[in-house]
Fold each of these.
Amino acid sequence: MTRNAAITTVLPVYNRIDVTFDHGDGCWLFDTEGRRYLDFGTGIAVNSLGHAHPHLVRALQSQAARLWHVSNLYRIGEQERLADRLVANSFGETVFFGNSGAEAMELCIKMARRYQWQRGETGRNRIVTFEGCFHGRTMASISAAGGAKMVDGFAPLLDGFDRVPFGDHDAVRSAVTDRTAAIMIEPIQGEGGIRPVPPQCLEGLRELCDEHGLLLVFDEVQAGIGRTGKLFAYEHTSIAPDIMGLAKGLGGGFPIGAVVANAKGASGMLASTHGSTFGGNPLACAVGNAVLDVMLEDGFLESVAVKGSRMIANLRKIVANHPEVYHSIRGSGLLIGIRAEMPHIEVVTALREHGLLTVPAGDNVVRLLPPLTVKNEEIDHALDILDRVGKALSS
Ligand code: PLP
């Protein structure tokens, strides 16, 4: 059979870099050519405890030897334990497990609509979202976010999203009508360029939701699970959402997503209204529980906050020394963005060539997302590379 040379066997939706990794150990990745890289990309905020963490490896191996999959038609012990622990450590009262961030956000949207429908508000099905947001690649998620690259050619999009400019309080207020069901927001925009929403703004959204009978939905797929130095980003505020999407760091590299909701938020989701064949399977939940074992240890999250503050303070000095390359720093804990002065892809490439992996984001930002287990020596090594690259690209 002849093949079309223009198409690769892997669908070419990614502009891939010509590096293949062979194995990982803690903060380090080793490629098939024997080069090693300090991994401050962590598969885009996924390998929350680094590579080959012994506790996670043991949890996965021991679960793999016992039971891989059973249907959600039956009780799943590891799933119930993980749900109990997420509930015990959050505002939530109930959890649904899926396999990815987009799936989690899809359910957040369904849950918000269904809540209004269930209480007789059948015309309230619109959701206010924010420019620069990213909620995944399903039809609902791309419709919520907009953005030409994501939506061109995929029409008809899902109706029911009212997007407002990021940080524009008046626009949010005027977007709320008697057709609005919910406001959905990332407490820190990830793909949009590590753009934190100030706590008082999130608190203002809570008030607005309460005033108008709306649900508040947080997308913590990237910012949640310890990354900001708290288990959840909303804990930096005095409020909580009604519904929260999680994924990425929860599995430390094993695919899992989750929606955590309070009883009100979940009240429309009755038997048979949603489901997933693989969601919450024993393997994913065994690893999720192992991730929580580590993150809930005394002092772990505090150590993330301390390492993050130290790193941000040192990064500020490096940025000030190389103003032609770096513009500014933003973020929280170990969710850090450097806004670049020159094209950010050139900075990401130079850093990689010097052995440091980072991830580009919107708004010309270079993301630094080290494993939460990163040691200060490893942070210093990364800072040294950032300084050297700053020098090299300035000259
Ligand atoms: N929501 C946020 C905030 C994200 O950062 C992402 C992924 O980057 C998603 C949702 C989608 O997650 P996934 O790629 O697992 O579907």
Amino acid sequence: MAGRNFLFVPGPTNVPDRVTRAMMVAMEDHRSPIFPELTRACLTGLMPVFKTTTASPILFPSSGTGCWEAALTNCLNAGDKVLVSRFGQFSHLWVDMCTRLGFEVELLETPWGEGAPVERYLASLSADREHKIKAVLVCQNETATGVTSDVAAIRRAMDSIKHPALLFVDAVSALASIDFRMDEWGVDVCISGSQKGLMLPAGLGVTCVSQKALEAAKSANSKRCYFDYADMVQANASGYFPYTPSVPMLYGLRESLTMLAEEGLENVFRRHTYLAAGVRAAVFEGWKLKLCAIAPKWYSDTVSAIMVPDGINGAEVIARAFRRYNLSLGAGLSKVAGKLFRIGHLGDLNELMLVGAIAGAEMAMLDLGVKIEPGRGVAAAQNYWRANSSVVAPKGAGAKAGVAA
Ligand code: PLP
């Protein structure tokens, strides 16, 4: 098909050309005397992204899922109890992993479209007088439903009753796009991956581990080997890895961290909020449709899960968008299969890229008989962005450049 593919799944995200170019390197010796410079640039560059000065960023040759497994098997004893809520396919998969690894799960079943139920976390932790719950698990951004949870509130709940459990946060589709604060929120393990806000191909498990979690790992008896934190931290201390790292991914990461620092992390968050609000304007005002997230406090700034009207199959919208318009939208997963499609709006993107996704989704829906008017979604997004562009652009800068041209 002529023209480029518009990649608007919520990860993998578009890799900036700068990052692609940085990854085009000859292979090199990962035990050379100069290799530690690259390792250190990546690990120290990640610390401000996690907002930590004390925790240890770790890079595993995996995706985010490997970092879930690493958190559980490094920090917990076999059969330990964990407290977790499930409100989408990714929080479900984490629960599933806990069960399959033999941990005892106290599950807070939560409607899909809502986020982590803070009051229920507090109730379970308060009832746990003997402190049998060893870890509290929270999915910060449920990518399947486009729901963001309040991690700080979970930490406050834990602190209010002085519960000593570790706090594990899945920030796979949040890190480097939605605010995340390792130190301030007292997160013990943050789990993420390379293919979302970090704007890289999939292939690096990007995680960060507090000193408290590293201490717990010293005596935790769950079986682990390849994902052992201690092996990694020890090798990283001298700038190396316990096994062969993916050198191009490290060069790519160094470049993407440079790009994030150049834009400024807070500006990156502002850009994501602003772009997401434009997509929501298209959904609500332009198309008169609903999100899966049931209330504004849950709206995600990295992914919108858009409910299709009754009688329309979301999977057909996605297939039409792909086959006819070369646009990749995110699928409805598991319980919400067929009921929605998702627009990923995270990573390296701007208004005009998103207009392509909104227009393509609009055309695919029109082709399938959804009762919307052509151009309404695009117009609503444009109106929002034009009215709010000062959020992301210095006042007048764009307009002046336009006049000069
Ligand atoms: N958690 C969330 C919230 C995700 O969105 C994903 C993947 O999209 C995962 C976990 C699993 O990560 P990975 O596919 O990198 O293993």
Amino acid sequence: MAKVSINLATGSLQKEEIIVGIDLGTTNSLVAFINPDKNAQVINDTGKGVLVPSVVHFGQTGDITVGNDAKNYLVTDPQNTIFSVKRLLGRSYHDIENYKDFFSYKVIDDNTESLVKIKVGDKFYTPIDLSALILKELKERAEHALKTPVNRAVITVPAYFNDSQRQATRDAGKLAGLDVLRIVNEPTAASLAYGIGLDPEETKTIAVYDLGGGTFDVSILQIQNGIFEVLATNGDTFLGGDDFDRVIIDYWIEKNNLDKAQLAENRELSQQLRLKAEEAKKSFAHQSIFNEQLGDIWCTLDKQTFEQLMLPKVQQTITCCQNALKDAKLDVKQIDEVVMVGGSTRTALVKQMVAGFFGRPVHDEVNPDEVVALGAAIQADIMAGNRKDILLLDVTPLSLGIETMGGLMDVIIPRNAKVPTKAGRQYTTSVDGQVNMKVAVYQGERDLVKENRKLAEFNLKGIPAMPAGFPKIDINFLLNADGILKVQAIELRSGVKQEVEVKPTYGITDDQVEQMLMDSITHAKDDVSQRMIIEARTEGEQMIYTVERFLQKHGASVTDEETAQTNEYVATLKQALESGDKDLIHKRIDELNEFTRPFAERLMDQAISHAMKGKSID
Ligand code: ADP
Ligand code: MG
């Protein structure tokens, strides 16, 4: 199928349009493109630099700042300054429970299995909203620098990102006004930037070592016929350049006899010290002694001491490499290439130790904080069909998914996925004793199924009657090389199952596909905001259902006053549901949740906490 692109301003189709590659990082983000000389190049918007710190600040007057300027607010206005949002993307509160203290802003848990939200002032933001702000900044910088509209992108994610995290990244792109052609693994992009995997004849096994600002991961990839397969990943989501800065600060605190608690209270000074530490760390690329003063604090450090301080942390990453190899069932000698990614791999000790472990020189010729974005640009170029030497694999032209609560489209196989492919997700029931579940299969890019094309519908019957949230229903999509889609639904506790087969491309022309893609872009903004309202409403309705059922069952263990007040909260939530104001709905859910939590906990009702788990279809 021909690749078309759409000019957002005019709605017209353009055949020749730049597709950018985006590295949406935890610490820094950046965008790259293929220049007229056919080389991948990072975009440097005049005077702003290449790296955009992944930080968003919300001002009192509703002004939003992204990047370097926002970073300054980390010290002066931490509650309203969001960093590391990538850690929250596609995650439920349950997923992040153990490290919630890491965030200086407010992360909301109104329902342990639903996706987290962030509260800033009176407003609620999803990590998707916040990531979209970063992506929008990148899009605007690219447009400014390239002097042309930028509507299409390839975005990278860590190899270990799950389906929900990938979908969230797609949604963020869409919200930023970008047509996301593909989500690519960061290690895959990094290899492409080194030209590894571009030759369809070559078969290779490589290790990609990525040490960023706050996270570390290593991936073992097998490349065959231009296809990248992730054999294993390992890492530590709380190990990175920030830790190196911290060991330096601790060292200075000790040498200067500073009071740690007192220093922590002086946020301004702490931040200045942090910046000095980072400066010292970076300076060892060209000098062996750092010697500066901050007020009356001596910031002195030599390279040798620095390396001693870092050693245990770097050793930890080597252990991860060992584990990754073990999981991939490979010996270190079977690794053909080692690719270094992430700003922190600039440190000499890191390079030495990684090269030492793998017993070979590592690839560090490309700028390690640019390599992922550059590779993403190359992937974009491949998808645009500009590389005649590379065979474009068959892909599905439109996303495939099912209808979930509120008439929303839940994508199971995203558009542009390589065929054959399979994917699946688990669902549950929303009502007690539900014995049937409708599975409606759709094709298309819109958020509401009514705007998409219906392919099939069936009823999974014979689910044993259980409380809402108990059944575990797996929905699996299998798209074979002939384009036949098999959809299977199976209730895991009872084994009841049902399946259907359709051919998604049957009865649809290329023109209709183009039209559907175009509509999805022109309606992207409305679609996403509608989805958010529906999601908020569904969450509110579920909450009311759960609370009312709770009162019915356990009315006796709750005081009359508690019941009366709960009913009042429920009534105001119901009013909010009518309003269609998503922030208000979230606020009311939050209030009801805060109020009922203590007595729900008091009873520790197993059924209720179970009912909270899993996403339901209707
Ligand atoms: P992420 O992938 O997490 O968004 P990056 O790859 O941009 O992060 O890495 C950011 C980290 O790299 C920061 O901790 C920064 O201090 C570190 N870094 C950047 N340049 C150097 C350098 N020359 N030496 C050591 N560390 C560096
Ligand atoms: Mg990175």
